[in-house]
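My current task is to audit a protein record that another person submitted. What it holds is a sequence and that sequence's fold in token form. Thanks in advance; the entry in question is below.
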Amino acid sequence: MRLDSYCFELNGLFLMALQAFGFDARPLLARVHLRGEPTARTHELILVTAHGRQWIADVGFGGPGLRAPIPFELNHPTTQDGLTFQLVDAGPYGMMLQSQKDGQWINLYSFDLGHVFPADVALGNHFTSTHPQSFFTFARVAALPRPNGRVALFNCSLTHLTPENEYDQLLSEGQPYLSALKTFFGIELEVPYEAIRPLPQP
């Protein structure tokens, strides 16, 4: 059972809302670089054009991702809620979104401006939601931005992150886990804990 919604759901819905309000917006696909070796194009983000200016918007990257749209401009650091991001040229990968941590730039994901068809989104979504190597198929994941950081849950590991500090807490199974879901993410489940045990990792 998956507790979160991921990029194809969140950014897909956000894209429909932007287009319904009359924005010139279209999807892009990205490779995630958080673990060093880049993934396939399994992350969706949005390119928005407004008043002749292009912006990158992303409400579906649950890690240290964007809090608000940023201008589609290279080497132009932007700070949001104490977190700093920039886009840089990434050679064969296209453009790279980076975040700054402890004075170092961390690669988040790379993308290009190639046209994305509905079939491309369907393929990436299928892999993300069904492939045994996608952690969405064997882990319970939740993440929520805060005004000065974020809180994230990966199975029973709860992380509180601010620009100055990172605090990790290991939750006990059962009611402590369910209570943390309600307290930090506003999630109340109508099933017992045994029904949401994580699947074995391949």
About this structure: The chain is about 20% helix and 35% strand. The chain has two domains: 7-129, 139-196. The two ends are 16 Å apart (CA to CA).
